[in-house]
Write a structure and sequence with these properties.
This protein is mainly α. A 5-stranded parallel sheet has the order 8-9-10-7-11, with helices on both faces. A 3-stranded antiparallel sheet has the order 1-2-3, with no helix packed on it.
Amino acid sequence: MDGVPRVPEQRSPEQSATLRFGVLGPVRAWHGDELLPTGSPQQRALLAALLLREGRTATASELIDALWGDEPPPRALAAVRTYASRLRKILSAGTLVSESGGYAVRLRESRSLDLAAAQELAAEAEKAKSAGDLCHARHALNESLALWDGETLASVPGPYAEAQRTRLEEWRQQLLESRLDMDLEQGCHAEAVSELTALTAAHPLRERLRELLMLALYRSGRQAEALAVYADTRRLLADELGVDPRPGLKELQQRILRADPALAEPSAPAAEPSVAPVRPAQLPATVPDFTGRASFVAELSDVLASAEGRVMAVSALAGIGGVGKTTLAVHVAHQARGAFPDGQLYVDLQGAGQRAAEPETVLGSFLRALGTPDSAIPDSMEERAALYRSVLDGRRVLVLLDNAKDAAQVRPLLPGTEGCAALVTSRVRMVDLAGAHLVDLDVMSPEEALHLFTKIVGEERVGSERKAALDVVAACGFLPLAIRIAASRLAARRTWTVSVLAAKLADERRRLDELQAGDLAVKATFELGYGQLEPAQARAFRLLGLADGPDISLAAAAAVLDLPVEATEDLLESLVDTSLLESAAPGRYRYHDLVRLYARACAERDEQPPSERDAAMSRLLDFYLATAAGVYAIERPGDRLVEHLEATQYPGLTFEDRHQAQDWLYSEAHALLAFIQQCAKSSMLRRAVDLLWAAKDLAESGANSKQYETAAHALREAADQAGDPQARSRALTTLTNVHLVAGRFGQADEEARTAMELAHIADDLAPSCWAANDRGIIALYQNRHADGEAYLRQAIESFRLDRNLAGEASALCNLSRIHLAMGQVGSAVELAQQGIVIYDRLGHTLRGANGRYALGMALTGQGELDAAVDRLTEALEVFRDSRQRLWEGMTLFRLAEAHLAGQRPAQAAALAEQALAVLRGIGGEWRRGNVLTVLGRALSGLGQTGRAQACWLEALGIFDQLGSPEAADVRLLLTPAAAA
């Protein structure tokens, strides 16, 4: 929140100067954007009483009762008249009126009062929920809840205000519970845990909140904690009220113990189909000569056969173009038709083409096939997906999603109900499709390939020339599509022998061109299109296919072609018009995978002189390195690393601010990291290593950490093979950072040690500085505090020798953490402050946040908890703004520690839950174990001992597996004495 109270929305410029009132918080009035003085608490109480009567007149005696109850002051009537007179002076004419011996507030429109606006939004949410539109309902409820600004009628005295405050706060809780229930219905269980943890701490006796927390934990894979919530609730109710949990809570506990499959999915009642269901039969015809793939057929058939007892059976087939994914999927689907008596749906999602099918369009088609009339099909994808799942509920339908682009395209099309199943084919391996059974389809075995060839050509012709037939299928690379094309050509030419076909395919240059394309007709289309290009277009087509990566930006393409951006855009758009290039997004371009292979073949064949290919790649590397160095310099002013990087000839982009720089780095991440790996085994190795180092933020982002790690390993291997100590040292420095982010501290220390040795051999100061700095923080994590201090003192000296003030600040802040761990709290605070002074003087926003992180920890240790929370909150805002997920999660963890030290367990638990959510997939298990330990301590402070024990047991398992000394501390927490 930005600290500005939410007020009822202003609907038009004409209404901007009208009166608006707030009671969902302090009682306030605005004239346009001006906050009006509403007077003393009793005067505000009078205003509130009139506002809550919704325009009805309140008599003087009713107002006296509202303000003072049974004990009014002697001059209560005169006081009421005085308050009314004062309010009338500050409000617009005609707003507060006198009539029938009383008073009333007349509003021009109902939404001028925040309560009325909240009621309208709540009614809108209820209507949307009844219509099955949970997305809209959640949005409306969130808007309604956002109108509150603290406690209702805050600081307003009187019995009437007290009664209304209780009523409206109860309604607020009901709205919040309804919205949380919708969160769980839409699969946002992991995100809901943090909020529910805080709410159950604030309202420990509200069983509905406990029930929602149990369900959210269970759906997040935290069954032990879910059961512990029930145990804590049962004990609390018995101690406080002498009662047992209500039946619904008991039933949920039993369902969790049974691992009831229905708990894994939303429980909202499905809408009844508007018409009698029909049985679609959309599968394409299976090929009569289907051959081989017996193990895959059996594997997929087994998965489909299990659909009846599962929430949903999903199989995703992946493989290169022409490997036979669609043929296999259609064959298996036909065999399984009997298990899906309510129908089979099919769609070609055109994921390999220029325009992949839109999920909402496919959903409309499926709904029509299932008998839904056009008039009943909603407009939005979310509504269509909800109706689609409702129509399929209770039915057994097989859905074949062919040629999918990615998991995002597939997810809305999955049935999601027991008894249904989905088969997906795609050129990409859908590891991010939750719950899917992944099948990687490779080329055929030699026996299967020969069998397919024989089925098409005929036993008689193949039997007499078996060796030649084996030569043909081997030349086809055992790729089913290539075999089918070759066999079909032979079958159509009765005068050819198998040997003739084998001889035609013996030309490796022609054979490779044809078979990599996988389809001779497509290859012919490529040749025709390429042959019609102008020379400049043909050069662009050839050179742009050289670089690895999913796509390429316009600026990067300009570097490859050594042309101005405007001329490059004209060329690329003309290639898009010929369908030889695709426009992936504004300013970004990509090849179809087979077209890229053809473009590279053309470059090898036609680009003269051949050195131009290397020059194009070198310009692209220069562009990436110069631009990434610029990003590094903007984010780390004063850091001299950029001055140690390899020189570049081709310029990079410049940016106005760090946000623009960050946007470039993250948008280019996939292409940049893929290109780095491509440059590993070449004369460009040193620049590739420096590019990876300059782009180190990608290692800490979470979204790109895995790809960054892969690139770091590739460069390390290449540098080892090249025997280049500078490249080796710098590659190991990037790999050290990778291991640090992942929590692999032993490996990180080994890489940093070697990096320091190689940096000394290469007389390379930059990695020597940073490797010593890294070893210091590694030693901290390994509880080797004396070693850590020595490394960091060495790093400080090296940074000062290099005149690298930003590096010196980093080492000072890390040394602060060492001193804190050694109990030297005063010097820890002082060192962190020294680092922050340097960072702030340099204008170093991002790493200045690291300094505040260290200072916040030191202040927590010193007991200055409010100051610690302030510093950590400042750091958190920067890390979030900079998309640094690792540091965002760790700062949430440190905030939890600070709140726990301040005896605020509810806030600590909520922050620890947020940290767990942010650190999913990044940071490693050691950090997760530490967060779980703090979460357990916070829950224990809330009296939720069962759930606390579950957190500590999970943390203990992590630390035991890692051999971490923290295991001993957790064991102490698990002892009965600690629990007591």
